[in-house]
Write a structure and sequence with these properties.
Shape: elongated
Mean pLDDT: 91
Number of domains: 1
Oligomer: single chain
Largest sheet: 2 strands, antiparallel
Distance between the termini: 38 Å
């Protein structure tokens, strides 16, 4: 599995896995690391958290 590291200039270099599907995401010198490969995976993560919260209430 790839790992992104912060360089001397404060930018991330390397790959990180998507939090939803574990696909490697190239960081391409970004200041903040990308955590999801697309917006839909970010939305699915959010909806699953909300669903777990609601299910925990009942």
């Amino acid at each position: 599995m790839g790992r992104a590291r912060s360089g001397d200039d404060g930018r991330y270099h390397g790959d990180l896995p998507c939090r939803w599907c574990d696909a490697l995401i190239n960081q391409d010198g970004r200041r903040r690391p990308r955590l999801y490969c697309n917006g839909w995976h970010r939305t699915k993560t959010y909806l699953s958290r909300i669903g777990a919260l609601i299910a925990g209430l009942f």
